[in-house]
Amino acid sequence: MHDLQPITALGGQIPRQDTVAALMLTENPDLALASVAARLGQETACHKHLKALISAVPGPGECKTAKGTDAFWTSPDMWMVTAPFGTHEDLAAQLKQRFKATASVTEQTDAWCCFDLTGTGVEDVMELLCPVPIRTMVAGQVQRTSIDHLGCFVVHRGSTDGLRIFGPRSSAGSLHHALLTAMRSAS
Q: Are 105 and 46 in contact (CB under 8 A)?
């Protein structure tokens, strides 16, 4: 019998947390992710299901939240949906049940890593990393960008919640290094 233990994207048993001056970077493995893409001719029906799930259909650059579930726009008629892993380990299956033939749903949990960046000076850190207009972004906005040559999403969660950064899990170490290096440079 195998005795497998889950590990985080950075290879630890517990999420890594780094503090530099007034900034905190926290690895967040507690999210389930799934992509939802409206099928051709089913866009209106797909939008109705998404609206029932999170009370809105996020447009370009938007992230909407309801009942602990987030959805952000990734491309026309396509969204990334996130929810707490503890209650939504099977998020993709739950979404497939809800959307039925109106959307193609793909499991994304193990494809992405997530880091939460909070504290004073978050804007300075992001200006060193990518061309996101971080100083004009407000809560609920999301930008797709490149951080250290990695395709990432930056979600503005509000002044107290900071930023949530999604990047490819296969490059979690590189993304973490880039974020931590920028934190040290900015402080």
A: no
The domains of the chain are located at 17-29+110-186, 31-109
Angle at 161 between CA 89 and CA 92, to 5 degrees: 20
Whole-number Å distance between alpha carbons of 187 and 185: 6
Give pTM, 2 decimals.
0.95
Query: What is d(CA 84, CA 67) in angstroms, rounded to the nearest whole number?
Result: 10
Over residues 60-80, the mean pLDDT reads 95
pLDDT at 159 over 90: no
- Element holding 157 (H helix, E strand): strand 150-158
How does residue 1 score in pLDDT terms, banded at 50, 70 and 90? Answer: low
Fold designation for 17-29+110-186: Gyrase A; domain 2 (3.30.1360)
Specify the CATH architecture of the domain 31-109: 2-Layer Sandwich (3.30)
CB 125 within 8 A of CB 180: no
Instruction: Say which DSSP state 6 is in.
Output: -
Q: How far apart are CA 71 and CA 108, in angstroms?
A: 13
Mean pLDDT over 8-27 rounds to 97
